[in-house]
TrEMBL record:
Protein name: ATP-dependent 6-phosphofructokinase
Organism: Cyprinus carpio carpio
Pathway the protein acts in: Carbohydrate degradation; glycolysis; D-glyceraldehyde 3-phosphate and glycerone phosphate from D-glucose: step 3/4
Binding-site residues for beta-D-fructose 2,6-bisphosphate, renumbered to this chain: 472, 529-533, 567, 574-576, 630, 656, 662-665, 736
Assembly notes: Homo- and heterotetramers.
Family annotation (PANTHER family): ATP-DEPENDENT 6-PHOSPHOFRUCTOKINASE, PHOSPHOFRUCTOKINASE
GO cellular component labels: 6-phosphofructokinase complex; membrane
Binding site for Mg(2+): D119
């Protein structure tokens, strides 16, 4: 093992006690975080205690503080809210209350706390840590603990995880519960849209967010709302007239419904509240539209956590335990968080101070500063929404005289339509004439190309599949005909949205440039495939929706198994040779094993999994879940594994198998895929505009450099344009996967949480970053 590597085997929790509590408002995914802390803590040899009812339980002590076992967190993963309870606690705000809490912790030897809550809960934890030695001195003086106990427990270590549906904590891309809350909002909006269309109604929806407009902004982006009101960016004076004009323009454009989304803390320029009733009265008075108000309220906090929240919370829970194991008395309290798809640790008080700065900026009416302080992701969401929602009149548009074509290639993926809508609208805003190609390269060679206007893509964000039509056909054998169509329609740039075939297709078009000058134009590809197997991008449009479909099905299957007991399910997932869906699906569903092509396995591994499940059946958790990627092995097929498990498990457990199939490609896109598709596509169109200006010479476009045929992918923390030719070396073309895949680092995590001893490289962990440095570095984050 190289010296610079750090492995979990070398970290020991023996003799340490960790307390885990959830505090403040509940959020979906908190249970997944609790489960991960408990299991990771037990795995490294520590004792872990539940502290029930948040800080109130810590102050009251007694049965509120109980040791947790491996089985006690079973079946928690798919449950919303927090099963260990949460309460807002006045007692903990008093010195006397904190003194009692300190005594209760010392009596049980707990000097490591993992706090899951909002900024108030985390600030309270930090104050507790700062007062700790003083509290112990008081307890020694009053004779409640010995001097020796005070020495042994002299330092309190604190790690926070942010559980808040509002996503109102600075320094973290996403807080636990935000994605699930967006799922609830989008489910409601999708349902409301059908009834609003029937009656030509206007709906005003109020979503949570007293001080933060994230939920309102992102749900408006995800459903293509006509207007959004958020506390960070109050509308300019005269907004009432502007909004009514926009609504009536949309109706005149044959749009049968209007959706207005309002954050509960929405304000105007004078800091006066803007309520849903005020907006309803305004629309009725000025336009006479049939208008209804829906206040979503606590629906947003409820329901089962999304796949994203389960994975986020599980990764953060494990990271929190690592942070506690590595903490020394001088280590500041930290928050574990995700930035892009990387786990990071940030000083807790830096994050809290920055979060408070936002509120201060809003109170002082420095609204642009408030948006900037919220972080790059929030700012980009706002800019993208502005870009897509306000349709400029023709006289306001720059006229570019460029023609840009958009097409879908490969298998359908949820979120493709959101990407097409975004590209068309941004293209029109930039002054281009947009063309839509039906049925991929096959439709291209047949001339199935027509101009597409702003109104043609209305309502596309929530539609699954591909409305343009998509085919797997590659361009090489039709290259002459495609070149001819490029010439006939005078296409000056291409945006290809699709999977591995789109990537291969772009390479073929680039290779054809030497024979056909028509392909010497800017070309960019946006990855969209449920398999998430595109080199140059950590994530693809459609993968999150597929993951949620897998997770939902696994939840139902687990529920059926809990009734029958002693049953193991073998579930086959899609993905080609890429094991992303099987691995990450297994982590989100709490599976016992996941077989994938990238990690070869043999009969001994299968035997060891059967033995592991046999042992599990002796505990109170009498069910098993095994995921298998469709191409993980030629010979160890789903049927073979099912038969082997059935034979070996005879008398101990019985088996069932389930092939999920095309349900993973269908369904309405998840909020994440809608937004990812919208933002990545908008960025691709802006790149096309820039390239067209650069490549315009003497009346025509000519682009022949490597960097004029790019793939736009998400890499770690940023969206990056990469010439496709440079991605060749990173690609395994036989198995249609990237040679290196970031998510393979999550496999040990899945095994640890399923009680397997494994090697886990934790070298990535442990760098405490500073929030200011983080902000400047992430200039091009989503």
């Amino acid at each position: 093992m190289p010296d610079n590597k750090k492995f979990i085997e070398n970290l020991s929790g023996t003799g340490k006690c960790i307390g885990v509590l959830t505090s403040g408002g509940d959020a979906q995914g908190m249970n997944a975080a609790v489960r991960a802390v408990v299991r990771m803590g037990i795995y490294v040899g520590a004792k872990v205690y539940f502290i029930h009812e948040g800080y109130q339980g810590m102050v009251d002590g007694g049965d509120n503080i109980k040791e947790a076992s491996w089985e006690s967190v079973s079946s928690m993963l798919q449950v919303g809210g927090t099963v260990i309870g949460s309460a807002r606690c006045k007692d903990f705000r008093t010195h006397e209350g904190r003194l009692r809490a300190a005594l209760n912790l010392v009596q049980r030897g707990i000097t490591n706390l993992c706090v899951i809550g909002g900024d108030g809960s985390l600030t309270g934890a930090n104050l507790f840590r700062e007062e700790w030695s003083g509290l112990l001195d008081e307890l020694v003086q009053s004779g409640e603990i010995s001097e020796e106990a005070s020495q042994i427990h002299s330092a309190l270590h604190i790690v926070g995880m942010v559980g808040s549906i509002d996503n109102d904590f600075c320094g973290t891309d996403m807080t636990i519960g935000t994605d699930s809350a967006l799922h609830r909002i989008i489910e409601v909006v999708d349902a409301i849209m059908t009834t609003a269309q029937s009656h030509q109604r206007t709906f005003v929806l109020e979503v949570m967010g007293r001080h933060c407009g994230y939920l309102a902004l992102v749900s408006a982006l995800a459903c293509g709302a006509d207007w959004v009101l958020i506390p960070e960016m109050p509308p300019k004076d005269g907004w009432e007239e502007q909004m009514c004009n926009k609504l009536s323009e949309n109706r005149a454009d044959k749009k049968r419904l209007n959706i207005i989304i309002v954050a509960e803390g929405a304000i105007d320029q004078s800091n006066k509240p803007i309520t849903t009733e005020l907006i309803k009265d305004l629309v009725v008075r000025c336009l006479g539209f049939d208008t209804r108000v829906t206040i979503l309220g606590h629906v947003q906090r409820g329901g089962t956590p999304s796949a994203f929240d389960r994975i986020l919370a599980s990764r953060m829970g494990v990271e929190a335990v690592l942070a506690l194991l590595e903490a020394s008395p001088g280590t500041p309290a930290c928050v574990v968080s995700l930035c892009g798809n990387q786990a990071v640790r940030l000083p807790l008080m830096e994050c809290v101070q920055m979060t408070q700065e936002v509120q201060k900026a809003m109170d002082e009416k420095r609204f642009e500063d408030a948006v900037r302080l919220r972080g790059r992701s929030f700012e980009n969401n706002l800019n993208t929404y502005k870009l897509l929602s306000h349709r400029k009149i023709d006289s306001e548009l720059p006229h570019s005289s460029f023609n840009v074509a958009v097409l879908n290639v490969g298998a359908p993926a949820a979120g493709m339509n959101a990407a097409v809508r975004s590209a068309v609208r941004v293209g029109i805003t930039e002054g281009h004439t947009m063309f839509a190609v039906s049925d991929g390269f096959e439709g291209f060679c047949k001339g199935q190309i027509k101009e597409i206007k702003w109104g043609d893509v209305g309502g596309w964000t929530g539609q699954g599949g591909s409305l343009l039509g998509t085919k797997r056909t590659l361009p090489a054998k039709h290259i002459d005909k495609i070149a001819e169509q490029m010439r006939i329609h005078n296409i000056n740039a291409l945006l290809v949205i699709g999977g591995f075939e789109a990537y291969l297709g772009l390479m073929e078009l680039q290779a054809a440039r030497s024979k056909h000058a028509e392909f010497c134009v800017p070309m960019v590809m946006v990855p969209a495939t449920v398999s998430n197997n595109i080199p140059g991008s950590d994530l693809s449009i459609g993968a999150d929706t597929a993951l949620n479909a897998i997770t939902d099905t696994c939840d139902r299957i687990k529920q059926s198994a809990s009734g029958t007991k002693r049953r193991v399910f073998i579930i086959e997932t899609m993905g080609g040779y890429c094991g992303y869906l099987a691995t990450v699906g297994a982590l989100a569903a709490g599976a016992d094993a996941a077989y994938i092509y990238e990690e070869p396995f043999d009969i001994r591994d299968l035997q060891s999994n059967v033995e592991h499940l046999t042992e599990k059946m002796k505990t109170s958790i009498q069910r098993g879940l095994v995921l298998r990627n469709e191409n993980c092995s030629v010979n160890y097929t789903t049927d073979f594994i099912y038969q082997l498990y059935s034979e070996e498990g005879k008398g101990v457990f019985d088996c069932r198998k389930n092939v999920l199939g095309h349900m993973q490609q269908g369904g309405s896109p998840s909020p994440f895929d809608r937004n990812f598709g919208t933002k990545i596509s908008a960025k691709a169109m802006q790149w096309i505009s820039k390239k067209l200006k650069e490549c315009y010479r003497e009346g025509h476009v000519f682009a022949n450099t490597e960097d004029s045929a790019c793939l736009l992918g998400m890499r770690r923390r940023a969206l990056v344009f990469q010439p496709v030719i440079q991605l060749k070396d990173e690609t395994d073309f036989v198995h249609r996967i990237p040679k290196e895949q970031w998510w393979l680092r999550l496999r040990p995590l899945m095994k640890i949480l399923a009680k397997y001893k494994t090697s886990y490289d934790v070298s990535d962990s442990g760098q405490l970053e500073h929030i200011i440095r983080l902000r400047t570095k992430d200039i091009s984050a989503i």
